[in-house]
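hey all, quick one before standup. I had two proteins in the batch that finished overnight and I want to keep them in one place so we stop losing track of which output belongs to which input. First protein below, input sequence then structure tokens straight from the run.
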Amino acid sequence: MLYEAMLLFGVVFITSWLFDTLTQSRHALTLRHTRQVLLFVVLGVYFVYFWTHGGQTLAMKTWRIKLIAPGRQGVPLPRAVARYLFAWLWFLPALVISFALHLSGWASVLLVVANMALWALAITLHPDRQFLHDRFSGTRMIEFTPPPILKKPKKK
């Protein structure tokens, strides 16, 4: 997740820069909800595109893991979109509770961390140790080693 976050920093930065340039925003809170929706959509496009075109984001290629939909060739678009939406359950319940209880600072951060820890611990409930968002969307993560690239013999 950390490596993926490092790569996504660039996507979020460029998107925010374009948004600020096009809207002439001079403050981060200007059009805040519009910015949040835009970033949600851009991140969704990033993940869904890579999952439906080869099953791997750039970080997943590095770590040699792949997303598949068992019994299917590739990951269908509806399943990739469902996985993206369900993956927000890593954070969303804690954010909603934090907003409802008007929490701020460390209390809010601890609530999000606790939510993430519980979500991660849920893999112990699955025999194949799959995350809940994979179970809900009908996808699964597998270890994937790409086939070796064969070199052409040199001509003499």
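OK second protein, same deal, sequence then tokens:
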Amino acid sequence: MERESFEDQEVADLLNKYFVSIKVDREERPDIDSIYMTVCQMLTGQGGWPLNVFLTPHQKPFYAGTYFPKTSHYGRPGMMDVLPQLHEKYEQERDNIENIADKITSSLKERSTAGGGKEISENVIHKAYQEIVQSFDRLYGGFGQAPKFPLSHQLLFLLRYYYWTGTDAALTMVEETLEGMTNGGIYDHIGGGFARYSTDNMWLVPHFEKMLYDNALLLYVLAETYQSTHNEKWKKISYEVFEFIKREMTNADGGFYSAIDADSEGIEGKYYVWSRTEVLNILDFTLGELFCEAYDISDEGNFEGSNIPNMIETELEEIASDRGLSVENVKMQLEKAKNILLKEREKRVYPHLDDKILTSWNALMAAALAKAGMVFQEPQFLEHARNSITFIEEKLWNGEQLYARFRDGDVKFKAYLDDYAFLLWAYLEMYEAEQRVHDMQQAIKIKNILFHEFWDQQNGGFYFTSTDAESLIFREKQGFDGALPSGNSVSSLQLWRLAKLTEDMDLQEKVNQLLVSFEHDATVYPHGLLYMLQTVIAMYAGGKEVVVSGLNHNKIKEFIHFYHESYHPFDILMVANPERINIEELQVWKDKIDGKHDFVLYVCEQYSCKNPIYNIEEAKQMIVTKNLS
């Protein structure tokens, strides 16, 4: 639309003649985007971007749509027709337009103030699972038809459903989806990292744009899937994603950039595709032939005459057998080839980098790196997670106010719910990984801000904007997940974790109120609140409080590493010693501090603790059995 309409003189003249045109960066102003996207869905039955909404001078919407071509064709209205028609209606039927706008606005406000009446039942969780099963692509993995998106919070839900119910099919869907994606072209086999979505069912042809949040959420999924399966492939892909983020999306001060465009030199995907001749010229012939066979590089190409490297149909065992090589030898040679091709690719014209740094997305990546660093015992991951959080603390948080966006030293926009919710997630992951008091103190500070500035005192749940934010036509309270899980969804799960860490019964009840406020939405459309339903599963599962203490730091560290290698989505781990339990909220664990023994493990559930275990091998065995009680 930018090229064919907004930069077109005829369209521009009409816009400037009849309207005040305002262009909004939806990543900087998600509050505005979310409100008017809801309007578009109400009026048209669907949403998407570009989003075009026509408002009265009082911000009230009366007409909306997504893509409008310059001129009308095949039943789709064009800008040259829509603009004068809307102007004429506004001039001649002003009262009717105002009436429509008032009704839409009233409907929006009703949605925002609606509350639930009861707890979300287990049946809702099982219904959500069945909806996922019905949409699963058994051939290529993933869900639904093209375009296919990663939908990471759906995979996280499936992992927890698997753990809670023992339904092996849930884990199978996760692994087959990750297999499809990491074999397909949506994954950058040369440089690492995931593109935004696939335009086809096979995951072959991506929309080549790379988003920070997709890679953060998928890194988190990979780490949890590794915990569940110990499949080394997920560890390898995690490291490749990290190397991509470190190399291409990290600024000098430790913050993470937002996105890398799909286009370079005006052509989508040009930076990422190859010809067979090019590959053979760069690599020696033998290595080049091997790479081309493994990564589907042909003379005719698999994408508009060029090739997107992929392994969708690749059988490494067969390739190795044909050459009289071991599979491991083939893998080593392919890694060598990829490194050579990456260096060559870096000589190309690089796509545009969106270098704004968003608090919410940075917090997501910090949470994912902390999780992966903890699972893989990788200090580099934890270091970059810490650097990102430090960047937020130093550049975007002045101690009183958190801000949403940093770019070239310019900080703008008071933080939204997502900023606080995702940052709470990051602090809790860092606390679990390193047990630093600072992270717990920051998590508690965010909890207090959430309830003071965002909480709906009457109906429960969090508004998207704070009490002192810019006034829009209404304060939205959103529970449905989109490309990102909603702020209410993330808050529910992270506050539940914090309540367990601090044994805060009042906070547990607040989390319950939050869930109850979205009971109607969850019951009607459970598939739309899958991240929040993880919290509901957690409420039913209960989970354990695993507390370790003792004098031998090496034994404690050994146990923690062992614990983190396996999957415990509903349990929390606390290290009880005087250095760490020196803030009021953690005093509940003070009696677990042991100054006499090398090592001690306590397992608590439903506010009751089992007898302590002093033998580390016996403690490990309890973890291995999954059922800690």
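Flagging for whoever picks this up: The chain has 24 helices and 16 strands. The chain has a mean pLDDT of 92.
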